[in-house]
Amino acid sequence: MSDVAWEIAHSIDANASPAFAWSYMTSVANWDDPPAKFELDGPFAVGSSGTTRMPGQEPLRWHIRRISPMKMYTLEMTLDRAAMSFEWRFDRLTDRRTRLTQHIVLKGENAAAYVAQVQSAFTSSLSAGMNKIAAAMERAEASATESQNHDSARKVLPSSCSDSRT
Q1: Which of 78, 103, 158, 165 has the fewest CB atoms inside 10 Å of its own CB, making it the most exposed?
Q2: Does residue 4 register a pLDDT over 70?
Q3: Cα separation of 148 and 21, whole Å?
Q4: Could you tell me if residue 17 is inside a domain?
Q5: Cβ(83)–Cβ(75) under 8 Å?
Q6: Where are the beta strands (DSSP E) in 42-161?
Q7: Closest CA to 84 of 57, 72, 58, 102
């Protein structure tokens, strides 16, 4: 299955630390792409399987094929004599910025049978989807940072300073 029938890639720079970006994207609970619903059976580890559910369609099974912690992971979906892979890369730009790249590849002896369907599903939506992911990730990190700063401030303030009656 080395014959690539179709591929697409898109990158976006997110205002999120590399560690947060990795943590966010390796938590399937954060994969928000309605109407699709995602499930992972087990830990986010090589060999673990997952399911994508779409209304009115059969569930799509996939597995985690490869992980290089903090750098990349690849999900693979087996089709009839073909496979589709979704590689996510995390490139550190600064301590607080990460370039996210998604590379989708359709390959295999029967891949041509899936090209039209895959193209229509991803060509027009990949950029917007990646923008949505980056924005959600940025909001989540800002919220987590704000919460941590608030908790730290409460611990630092003497009790008399935090008492509104004084």
Answers
A1: 165
A2: yes
A3: 17
A4: yes
A5: no
A6: 49-53, 60-68, 72-79, 82-94, 97-107
A7: 102
